Every structure is written in structure tokens, then in C-alpha cells.
Amino acid sequence: MYSDEKVFNKMVERRRDFHRYPETGWTEFRTTSKIAESMTDVGMDIRFAGDFVQIEHVLGRNADIEAQVTRAVIQGASPEMIEKMKGLTGLTAEIDTGRPGPVTAIRFDIDCVDTTETGGSSHLPRQLGFNSVNPNCMHACAHDGHTAIGMTLAEELFSEKSSLKGKVRFIFQPAEEGARGGFAFVKSGAVDDADYFLTFHLGLGNPTGTVFGGTDGFLYSTKIDADYRGVGAHAGAEPQKGKNALLAAASAALSIHGIAPSPDGLTRTNVGVLNAGDGRNVVPPKAHMKIETRGATEDAAIYIYRAVMRILHGAAEMYDVKLTTQKCGEAISATSDRELAKIVMEAASSVCGVDRTDLIQPMAGSDDACWMMKKVQDNGGKATYIGIGADTKAGHHNDHFDFDEKAMLIAFEVLYKTVFMLNGK
Predict the structure, then answer these.
(1) Domains defined along the chain, listed by start
(2) Which terminus of the chain is less hemmed in, N or C, by CB atoms within 10 Å?
(3) Cα–Cα distance between 176 and 397 in angstroms, integer?
(4) Beta-ladder partners of 292
(5) What is the radius of gyration, based on Cα positions, of the chain?
(6) CB-based contacts of 17: which residues, under 8 Å, 6+ apart?
């Protein structure tokens, strides 16, 4: 049986290490290396994403991979482990008991958010020296905690393999931010044989001590990159010879945020990035936009996506510039199975520190774990998305984000007890 203090200290140490060295989607080479080293050290079987993910299903992998690998090695990744990754991050680790029983898959997201962490003196990670050292990379959504929980849970359950039946699979998924990695893992068969699927999130506006057995209300989402190409010209002498890509993008951005609501449900749009131009005296020849759409229903999601695409193309025509677009990520909606959510609630009821349990929490965001949930359910299995409350210093994706680390022990124990209820002998 595990020791609460030992488990907690291990998770805190790991979480702070990952927080200091965050990596964005499809570049989590150091993170994957650290996970792989820990799993192999205890004797678990692992499969790197590069061994099973089909490259045609990989969305939004635009980073300079060679540069990210170099940085990962400098920051402590194993060159041998990175070579085994074959250019793709993430992995699965499995406990195969050799005894008949269900296959339970648990997903942990491992990537960070594209934002720069605050350097404010009141920020605990800065005070204790584990704030991010990587520019425009920050664990602002608790995935550092998720990863630390997953590693420690896998080790502790593996040590009690003789008390389990069936298989327990740990999915360390890259690129959740931007809704990219889940699709690739599902299309490559990561949960094809799963009878049960569990995933979870820390925080989400709920205080430490709160546990929800499941989550509903996920929004469909599509992530779009758009590039306008115009013609540069001297802005003073010959502006008439230019074609202004910046104006096309700016016009599109304003119009996208003015799309009428859908009659089929809630919709959301956001132009998160608009970069354009070369210099103050040059008609801007290029502009790059990063856009997302969300919808509460499939019809609402289709409506908002098509409206955005019409606006992008309309702006290109209006300013006589060329447009290229790329779908960089996509998430669907899913519903947690009540039967499995009730099992989670039962497990949580005996966990120290839990003072409130509820069956289902509403969700106003998106998560590409929904691809895995839907796949397992379509195959006749059960799936749930667990909510683990954690006090936070700021909202998710904010540069001041930090969470109550005590929530990690609650999450660990809820998952540990749930696995034993599903796979215990």
C-alpha cells in the first residue's frame, strides 16, 4: 500500500520539474523522455507515439522539431529515449496482469499553453524557483499536475499488479491544447479495446475537496490557421502597387467577432493571433491568423465554422489577396456515462480531503479526450471525464495561474480507488 506522504512529495517534485520546463503540443520531448524513463525503470511496457500514431492523423504539428529536440536534451531529456520517439511525442504504458478482466484506459495530457508566465514577486512558482524557463511556454492549465499524477499512479498500481486483473493502460497524450493529439491517438487505435475510459482535470473553477464523477457539455471545436498573401510596395511612393494583407486579416478578424448567433445552440469564436507586415513604410504583403470556433451542438459548430470560412474568403476577395487555410485541430463533444461516474463518486467518498461529491459538472470548454470517450462508447464501453477541484490563483490559461498541489493527492487516490473497483481481483 502506498504512503500518502511519499506519493504526495513525489508528485510535487515532478509537477514542479515539468512546470519549470514546459513544452507545447507535439514538442514534449523532455516530458515524454522523463515519463518513459520512470515507466521503464519500474518495468512497465511502453509504446512511443512514433511506434503507432499514423502521421496522416497528426494535426497542427508546425514547430521546428529539431530545435525543440535540442532544447529538450539540454534541459535533461535522454538522447536515447528521444531517438526511440521517432519524432513524435507522447506514449502509452500498460499493466498487463495476464488475468482475464477489463481493459481500463486512463488519459493524461502533457503539453503546456502558449503563453509567457508572469515574473511577479507574489507568484509562488517564481518564489520557489520553478517558474518556466522556456519563452512563450507555461503550464497554465495544470497539465504539469496531470502528468505527475499519471506517472506516480502508474508506478504505484504496477507495484500492486498481483492484486489486479485485466489491463490498465496509461495514455500520456501530447497536444491537448489546440485539440490535436486526441484525434491522432484515437485514429491510431489507442483505445480500440478499452472497456472503460477515464480522464480528469484539476481546477476548472471548483475548490479543492470537490470531486465530480463526470462532465457534460463539451463544446465542439475547430482550430484554423489562415495566411493572407498580398504584394509589398513602398507605402509612400507607390502604395497603389501594393495589396494589403494586413487589412484583409484585420477586416476578417472584426467580422469574425461579429457573426450572428446560431439558432442551433451556443457558439464561440476567437481570433487569438494576428501577425502581419514587415515594416512601417511597407504595404504589408503577408498576414497570419490563428482562429478557433466552438459550438454546443454539431449543427452550431458547423454553422460557426462555415461562417468563419466565408468571412476569410470574402476578405481575401475584397482586398485582392491570396488566402490559404489549414485545419490545425478539432474536438467533438461527449457525454460521461452515469454508471461509471457513480463508481468514481463512490471511490471519492472515502478519500481524505474530499468534502463534496457530485455526479456531473457542466463544461463550457473543449477537450480532445472526447474523441477517446466517444470511441470507447461506440465500441460498447463506458467513459467519464472526472472533475477534481483545485483552488487556483488565477483562471486557466492566465499568466498568473497556479493550483493547490494538495488536489493532486485527491486526484491520485480517486483514480487509484476507481481502478481497483474496476480491475481489482
Answers:
(1) 4-217+333-423 (3.40.630.10), 220-330 (3.30.70.360)
(2) N
(3) 13
(4) 223, 270
(5) 22
(6) 34, 130
Provide the grid cell at 205: 473553477
Residue 166 corresponds to which cell in the numbers above? 485485466
Other C-beta atoms within 10 Å of 257: how many?
11
Instruction: Give the separation between CA 121 and CA 110, rounded to whole angstroms.
Output: 27
Backbone angles phi, psi at 223, to 5 degrees: -110, 130
CB 16 within 8 A of CB 128: yes
The pLDDT tens digits for 37-83 are 999 999 999 999 999 999 999 999 977 899 999 999 999 999 999 99
8 A C-beta contact, residue 149 and residue 415: yes
Full strand arrangement of the beta sheet holding 91-96 = 45-48, 91-96, 167-173, 103-109, 196-202, 382-388, 210-216, 356-362
**One-character DSSP codes across 215-259:** EE-PPEEEEEEEEEE-B--BTTT-GGG-B-HHHHHHHHHHHHTTP
Q: What is the pLDDT of residues 185-241, one digit of tens each?
A: 999 999 999 999 999 999 999 999 999 999 999 999 999 999 999 999 999 999 999
DSSP 331-359: E------HHHHHHHHHHHTTSTT--EEEE
Neighbour tally for 373: CB within 10 Å? 31
Give 104-132 pLDDT, tens digit per residue: 999 999 999 999 999 999 999 999 999 99
First to last CA, the chain: 15
H/E segment holding residue 203: none
Residues 33, 84: Cα–Cα separation, whole Å: 10
